[in-house]
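Homework help board

Subject: predicted structure for assignment chain

Our instructor gave us this sequence and asked us to write out the predicted structure in token form, then describe one feature. I got the tokens but I'm not sure how to describe them. Can anyone check?
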Amino acid sequence: MPPPPADNRITFPTAGPPIGEVHFYAPTDWLDILENPHDEKAVRTRFRELTDLAFPHHAPGARKAIADGVMTTRRTFLADGMLSCGLVALPQTVDGPVLWQICSGVVEVGRLDPELDVGSVLTRLLGQQLEGGDSYVESFPTAIGAGAGLISTVQVLADGTVTLAPKPVPADSTGPAPEATLGLAVGLAVPPGGGRGLLVVGQCLNAEQVRELACVVALMAGKSTIELYSPKETKTGT
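My token output:
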């Protein structure tokens, strides 16, 4: 995707009338930065209010920069077709501070063999990045049809390199140490025979919390549903 224009605005692609909707099974008390996609002014006002509450000791300019950054991220995600991006932030729990991000969108899986395990579809979507890495995949039933979940980690190096499911590093390794290791949880729900499925991707700043994050991701992928409009409804957008 090209960099955002100077005024940080991204033009949404012309996608035509809606062809359906997703009924999300998701937390009701989190901050979804993609809510009200057509009312940017109201969302910006809310972000500024939340930023002022969350960072009262920051200078006004710094708080504005945080809100502007979230708005830019919001426009990028909406332009990419993402439907939901919820944030969970808790200053202190028994497992330490919590900072999670869970994003969801509809993906075209294609036609599936009824005997094909959905877990293999999920790993296929992620390409060869999982080969030899540290990850766990499990299949489970969903309200949409078949489903699969993945638990892994993401490493970020100082040069910006991102590695999905990194291989175990020997204790005597002299390679660069990661700047951060994030927890990654992915859930995919696919209707029988394939078609449009729901992909839910969660990341947590503390990789030790990835199993708890995976429970939320699995619930969202497992209990959310996709409703496709009839041809008549699609034409009118009703």
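Reply (TA_rk): Your tokens look well-formed. For the description, you could write something like this. The chain has a mean pLDDT of 80. That's the kind of observation they're looking for.
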